[in-house]
DNA sequence: TAGATTGTTAATCGATTAACAATC
DNA sequence: TAGATTGTTAATCGATTAACAATC
């Protein structure tokens, strides 16, 4: 999810909607699995099931890329793998730097899913002298001091931030100043970037909070519901109440 | 992002849109920071800036929760912290289990942002005998064999899957069978769950691929563009071409 | 009262979905 | 030809946004 402020709103490439772009990697993954099993063709129904979407959406998505299917037959797996890869820009090599080699940075460095999709970890950076010089995932850890040099020398355009929130904005600024134009941010903070720089964020805590919301709702359907009767007998309600459910908060406003 | 198949479509709690729910944690984070600085009130404009959204959206979001602001003044920070926390279900304790104690699982176990928001790591599970018995983030690692017992005894309703894709579905099935109804999935695979179980996924590779798409587009605005003239002189185009741009693929369909 | 800021309205935009004509 | 499946249409739904009346 890109931050609202930094993400360009409607300048879609060849008119491919953002929601479609976000699903192309899902299709690509499912297609790659089919390709490895040497499956020659696949229908929109089968592929949609494998990708976890419905087939109407899939066909609509593919229609933005072109007419790559054959009526009555389906889609050629290899051909579609190539087309989606090309559309996503995965037919070229993307050097990335990972800033912050804690557990999360190490997890990313070790993740095999990157290399296979054209992403090459150009460098691991950390400011901890105890880490620099050491090897993580078969790569030496460089000092953050060398960020600008490494970004420039390797033509890095994608940076991954896996440090605590406190230092994230400063690292972000340095990455951008050095030429990085896409940032994947794992720090739980809002990053401010100039126009033209894309930021996507992955926020572990936020995901859990959204789950908690739905979890609470599930529980409430059985347990909490009786506290708020479905239908209240009509009567004078002269006391305006804060909030939709009259729940009295522990902390009242001034 | 929940998988399309498993996420209930429109059964919204008290009518709070899904997009709003996803932003509540952002507001909460910004408000917590203000609270720590003992700021008593905040305007929609200030808070929106801190959360990285625009103020119209924020006010609309808050309108779903109730009328918690004061015209001409703004919002009471403490009061709003409480209301959003309550709405998200963070005023209660949520025991979670983390299955898979590799770098990613360890990163999550060490993440301080959980405990402060009502999430309590009830157990760390791994199938590797070399890990079980050891301590990670001050907690003992239990063996995956004990999954059912631990989930039941601790009343766990939220499970986090941080193992490779291969074993994810099986672990998911066991979690669900044991009573878990919300799953945060880091494994790069589509999980199949019964109705009533929520799945959200965090996919590191997909985020990078989306960035690559936009990155490619930025580069294309300068470099690739000349290959496709903005306006083509009208003429006979008797040869129908595959794809919107006539790019000849390396792999042709059957 | 004058200034500030919320809460809501209404218009717009983007995404989803079912249905089916086109066509292999 | 008959059956299967795509690509597209059109309706619907949900999200965003600007503007401003309400009101502190």
TrEMBL record, chains A, B:
Biased composition (Low complexity): 222-236
Keyword Transcription in record: yes
Chain positions recorded as NAD(+) binding sites: 100-105
Domain CoA-binding per the UniProt entry, residue ranges: 89-190
InterPro entries on file: CoA-bd, NAD(P)-bd_dom_sf, Rex_actinobacterial-type, Rex_DNA-bd_C_dom, Tscrpt_rep_Rex, WH-like_DNA-bd_sf, WH_DNA-bd_sf
Pfam families membership: CoA_binding, Put_DNA-bind_N
Primary localization class, coarse: cytoplasm
GO biological process: negative regulation of DNA-templated transcription; response to redox state
Region described as Disordered: 220-254
GO molecular function ontology, one term from the record: DNA-binding transcription factor activity
Domain of life, source organism: Bacteria
Quaternary state and interactors: Homodimer.
Known role: Modulates transcription in response to changes in cellular NADH/NAD(+) redox state.
NCBIfam families, alphabetized: PRK05472.1-3, PRK05472.2-1, PRK05472.2-2, PRK05472.2-3, PRK05472.2-4, PRK05472.2-5
Protein name: Redox-sensing transcriptional repressor Rex
Lineage: Bacteria, Bacillati, Actinomycetota, Actinomycetes, Kitasatosporales
